[in-house]
Write a structure and sequence with these properties.
Largest sheet: none
Number of strands: 0
Helix content: over 70%
Order of helices and strands: HH
Number of domains: 1
Distance between the termini: 99 Å
């Protein structure tokens, strides 16, 4: 295992360090590498944010469509219930009026207490 510090000529002040990188060059290389990593990180973060945004838009669209379908089904069922109730009232008017009076009487007793 060769270590540059263990060589005897490395302690000699006359030996040139021309082929060894300078501290400034190493700092510049490190700064450049850090800048590239930072740009890569920002690029990856932007890509992930865009993909999440697209997924959220798709999910929101699906939820909107499902809600619209549910609303339409509920509206149709309410209309059917309304028509069924109207038919029942037309066929049994006396029974409905007496039932309404009974419910009104009970509500009046409960509210009076």
């Amino acid at each position: 295992m060769s270590n540059s510090f263990s060589a005897t000529d490395s302690l000699d002040p006359g030996v040139s360090y021309a082929h060894a990188p300078s501290v400034g060059q190493a700092a510049n290389d490190l700064r450049t590498a850090a800048g590239e990593k930072a740009r890569e990180f920002v690029h990856n973060a932007e890509e992930k944010a865009n993909s999440l945004k697209l997924a959220a838009v798709d999910k929101a669209q699906q939820l909107k469509e499902n809600a619209a379908e549910q609303w339409e089904e509920t509206r149709v069922k309410a209309k059917e219930l309304h028509l069924t109730a109207e038919d029942y009232i037309r066929e049994n008017p006396t029974k409905c009026v007496l039932s309404a009076l009974g419910v009104g009487f009970l509500v009046g007793l409960i509210v009076r207490r």
